[in-house]
Amino acid sequence: MQTATLTTRALKLSDKSLFISLIVPVFNEQANIERFVAELSQFIQAYTTKWEIIVVDDGSSDNSAALIAALPVDLNVKLLVLSRNFGKETALSAGLDHCNGDVAIIIDADFQHPFTTIPEFLAQWSQGFDSVYGVRTDRNDESWFKKTFSNLFYRLSIALNEVSIPPHAGDFRLLDRKVIEALKKCPEHNRFMKGLYAWVGFKSIAVPFTVQERAAGKSSWNYRRLLGLALNGIFSFSNLPLRIWGLVGLIISSVAFAYALWIVFKVLFFGIDVPGYSTIVVGIMFFGGIQLLSIGILGEYIGRIFTEVKRRPNYLVAEKKGFEDDALRHSRAGGNPGC
Description:
2 domains; alpha/beta; 8-stranded mixed β-sheet; Spore Coat Polysaccharide Biosynthesis Protein SpsA, Chain A; elongated
């Protein structure tokens, strides 16, 4: 069975019959998007005769959506405009929900993900790997603080999470159709895609690449959004913080109980000392801080539960362009195209 699968994949790659979906999340990329889509479409033609470029506009405030809609039909571009900015993780999910390819390749529109890595993705896929992800060879383009923050996050992820998230692996990756279908079965609202890629499993391999300079504009990722993403990655895939803090509470309670026994012993055998005001104040502040921190950790989980039980859709689509043939195929097959 495995040999037959490998043969089929190799044949599709060699005769250029592999249907490739290229998913491009976009947020305020009007300076890059026209050139990017044109060059990506020209590049991918060397490897397949059937492709689609699904551009997901994540509520851009600039002219990105209009520029994409005006691109020539022969570039095989499909536009998905979300009703507002839902975040990159959700935009990626929207692209995967609407793609039809045998494989999907996720790539950013700022030229930082090199096209020349795509052939290596395809080669590894033809060798039987269902998920091929790019790993940065260095982070020299980032500040010391951001590099330290990233390293700390990956160390915490390895220590706390139930799934192993590869260090320095981003969204630049190839996913086989079976992986795409598995991801579509994950309905959670608080989405951390790197964790979901690891959670669904399947045979995976890393491909190193060097991040290129951004062609134009600037990244929309600030430290606040990075911190939110990191917290989401930890709390969405592990309940270990709750267990750790339960253990901390047990240790503190045990120490407090032992101290209480010592006070009783001291009063019974040595009499009552004059109580220390500073000791009382420090004790109250310490235990008050512990309680507030515990409530904060518990609140992170309760907040996520609150979001999930409302069962709102992960995203809303304001406009579609280029999906008309897909809708026609679904209607003929009796299917129900996505929102």
